[in-house]
Amino acid sequence: MVCGLCSAVLLLDCGLCPVVLLMVCGLCSAVLLLVCGLCSAVLLLVCGLCPAVLLMVCGLCSAVLLLVCGLCPAVLLMVWGLCPAVEVKVELTLLGKEKDPGVKSANGKASPFSDCRPNGALEHCSDEDSAAAAPLRLYKPRDYLEASVCHVKDLENGQMREVDLGSGRALLIKEHGEFSAMGHKCPHYGAPLVKGILSKGHVRCPWHGACFNIVTGDIEEFPGLDSLPTFQVRVEKDKVIIRANKQDLQSQKRSKAMARCSAVNSSTGFSQVLIVGSGPAGLVCAETLRQEGFTDRIVMCTMDKHPPYDRPKLSKSLESTAEQLRLRSIDFLQAHDIELLTEKEAVAVDVKTRAVTFQDDSRMEYRKLFIATGSKPKLMNYKGQDVRNVFHLRTPEDANSVARLANNKNAVIVGTSFVGMEVAAALTDKAHSVSIIGIEAIPFRKALGEKVGKAIMKLFETNRVKFYMLNEVSEMLGHDGQLKEVVLKSGKVLRADVCVIGTGSGPATGFLKQSGVHMDSKGFVPVNKTMQTNVDGVFAGGDIVTFPFPGRSNKKVNIPHWQMAHVHGRAAALGMMGRPTEIKTVPYFWSAMFGKSLRYAGYGDGFDDVIIQGDVDELKFVAFYTRGEEVVAVASMNYDPIVSRVAEVLRSGKMIRKRDVETGDMSWLIDKGS
User: Fold this and answer.
1) What are the tens digits of pLDDT across the range 355-393?
2) Which has the closest alpha carbon to 623: 138, 615, 344?
3) 359 with 411, same domain?
4) Dihedral over alpha carbons 198, 202, 206, 207 (to 10 degrees)
5) Domain final residue, candidates 478, 503, 528
6) Which residue in 370, 280, 258, 292 sits closest to 328, CA to CA?
């Protein structure tokens, strides 16, 4: 922490409540006034969580500044070395337990004063910094910059502005008469948050719906793993001034602080928490446990050979490598004591002995188990199963092979799922021809309705894609074992050098048979509000589960969205720690085709009508999906940030009525979303 006026470095870190505790320099009285009775410098500090009065010895009266909390009992170390009046350097070793500067509070809440922090150095660390598990960084005045960004009256309540600080940009926010500032880009895909929705203390991303607390910068709704840095804001002579750490200003993201494992012995066949699957549910579960102060062993195993990567990008960016798609590096996981076992496929679970058996015949026991194995492709019955160059898009290597084989060749896509359609769109500028085979007459009709489906189909046809609808594959014909033709049941023969099958997927839960973990007739695992299965200590999340969804009166539903898997991972982690949380998230989905983005929020299963505003033929529209008189979901193209705004209303629990959207007047939406 750095004093806003005299640039004294003030580091305060609570040992047990681990919060960043702000105080002011007693020489210049910047931020909070805490006056010492002896020398008029600094005397008292109040812990933001416990709320204890922390007595401390002032640097003007004593060389050692050691704070002891009267309630928690936390030990706090302050180093105050740059103030001209105090030339003191303190080095203390905290005995009894290794002090991790990144530990967060037990309830995961940041200090209420976190908006005043010049950066998150004491409570948070970036991916790169975390990898080295380095001690606290001591920032110097030259590490910061200040800029007057606007007049105090330039922003009304509820407004945001992206401002230039010279070496970077920040998002300035005014809500309830208070200013705050944080990173201006969503850490997920870099969306400009100034175009998002400000509502009730958070900003929602206009592209994919992630939410960030305007005081702490913490991510509160997914997708994404990282939070935003926050910057000091003060008002002087009606000028709004932002003080920012240069490094945070450039990075525009930070990872939440995480605890370390107190006793790791990777040679043992036991893990306190065993996570099967390294997708978003598994990864968020592991990170949430560490963020919430869990200090026992965590092992995450996956059948993939890569660290966690951004799977939705596979079908949109076929040439991206595993390194380019990476969500977390091996170094990052190791720095936070999250053990990753790759190419480790689970084949059986024994809930009586609390053990998982893997394909290599190894075995690991657990105290808590989280199953997040995701989906597997649905098998298709046709002749010629041994023909090569036929792919189910599952890995970066699959995507790279498809892109390479399709170059100036003939590509055939089987299925009109989002994955299949996205692959077709991605291949049009590479392949000689692209053909799509679909069992339905119109793509996306069940999910988006006939009008939207027809408009998207027209977009593909305009881009040289040929459709063979109401059809199925009969045979794959090859030459020297490599695909050359696809024969349809109608008798039509298509030239094909590469084929991608995108006919849907199902839960990857075959290994749970005879485990005692209950599954329904389709292989989905029912869970409760804490993501726990019928077996004590066994949790599940992501594509494989049906869970109580508040938007449908807690009816158990399956929502196989990337964003929802993040939510399940966090809920499972909190459930394991005995701190259950209610899922209030609004499902959010997106797709990209030919440079155009489709956004979707809500749960529209079983909709009976679609109300469209805008021009669907021009792909500039918003579609409201209704069940009876209630709007249950929304989709749009070229209409941002309407989907994020509707998501805010749905999240608040307010009902959107069909009559509200039939008129075309959107003023009601702005009022409710603000």
Assistant:
1) 999 999 999 999 999 999 999 999 899 999 999 999 999
2) 615
3) no
4) 180
5) 503
6) 280
The residue type found at 104 is K
CB atoms within 10 A of CB 50: 19
- Count Cβ atoms below 10 Å from residue 95 Cβ, excluding itself: 8
**Distance from C-alpha of 210 to C-alpha of 190, rounded to nearest angstrom:** 11
Across 600-612, b (16+ Cβ under 10 Å) vs e yields bbbbbbebeebbb
CB atoms within 10 A of CB 191: 20
Amino acid present at 597: S
Mean pLDDT value of segment 346-350: 98
Query: Positive or negative, the Cα torsion across 133, 575, 339, 126?
Result: negative
- Whole-angstrom distance, CA of residue 385 vs CA of residue 496: 15
Cα dist from 218 to 49, 178, 602, 665, whole Å: 17, 18, 23, 34
pLDDT digits (tens, 9 = 90+) for 520-538: 999 999 999 999 999 999 9
| Model confidence pTM above 0.70 | yes
Pairing of strands 270-276, 298-301: parallel
Q: Is the dihedral of CA 43, 46, 47, 48 positive or negative?
A: negative
Range of the structural domain that residue 31 is part of:
1-99
For residues 452 and 353, membership in a common domain is answered with no
Eight-state DSSP code of residue 10: B
Distance CA 291, CA 399 (A): 34
Measured CA to CA in angstroms, residue 519 lies from 165, 281, 546, 648 at distances of 55, 19, 10, 33
Residues in Cβ contact with 154 at an 8 Å cutoff, skipping those fewer than 6 apart = 161, 240
CATH number at residue 661: 3.30.390.30
**Strand 144-151 to 239-245 pairing:** antiparallel
- How far the first Cα of the chain sits from its last, in Å, is 33
Q: Within this chain, do residues 512 and 499 fall inside the same structural domain, yes or no? A: no
Max CA-CA distance within the chain? 95
Q: What is the 3-state secondary structure (H, E, C) of 45-93?
A: EECCCCCCEEECCCCCCCCCCEEEECCCCCEEECCECCCCCCCCCCCCC
Position 671 scores a pLDDT of 47
- Look at the chain and report how many structural domains it folds into: 5
Q: Give the separation between CA 28 and CA 45, rounded to whole angstroms.
A: 17
Confidence check: pLDDT of 263 > 90: no
Q: What crossing angle do the helices spanning 280-291 and 562-576 adopt, rounded to 10°?
A: 40
Show the tokens assigned to 369: 């188990």
Cα separation, 294 vs 575, whole angstroms:
12
The CA distance from 174 to 165, in Å, is 17
Q: Considering the domain boundaries, does residue 257 fall inside one?
A: no
- Give me the residues paired with residue 242 across strands: 147, 233
